[in-house]
């Protein structure tokens, strides 16, 4: 087990995305414009017209991912994760009229009508991600 301590929460950012805007690309743009290095997702809801995600398919090493693209009306029920060293690592739960899907958020996920994302900036913590021998990006302290 590893753990990391920050000192405080900084700014709270509420991002509202409109029809046709890209979820991950918009968040990355905001992080860059506002120089946010570390943050946590507080809340995210909305609707999507296109979802691009990946998920693991088995228990072998190294992990094997399945990439999924869905194009239909969907609800964004949840988005969770961290921003470490300016890079978001988010997982989402989405559903259409028949199924629910979850996995790692990928580029080209597109808003249908509206999406609202709340982030809290993490202050007093200096983190980065370092890939291990299985190509898994683990959190580490910057030195």
Could you explain how this protein is built, in words?
Strands 1, 2, 3, 4, 5 and 6 form a six-stranded antiparallel beta sheet that branches. The chain has a two-stranded antiparallel sheet with strand order 7-8. The chain has one helix and eight strands, in the order βαβββββββ. Strand 2 (39-56) and strand 3 form a beta hairpin. Helix content is 8%, strand content 62%. It is mainly beta and 143 residues long. It has a single domain (12-141), classed as Hypothetical protein, similar to alpha- acetolactate decarboxylase, domain 2 (60s Ribosomal Protein L30, Chain: A), CATH 3.30.1330.80. The mean pLDDT is 96. It has one helix spanning 23-33; strands at residues 8-18, 39-56, 65-84, 87-95, 100-105, 110-123, 127-131, 137-141.
Key traits:
143 residues; 8 strands; 8% helix; six-stranded antiparallel sheet; 60s Ribosomal Protein L30, Chain: A; mainly beta
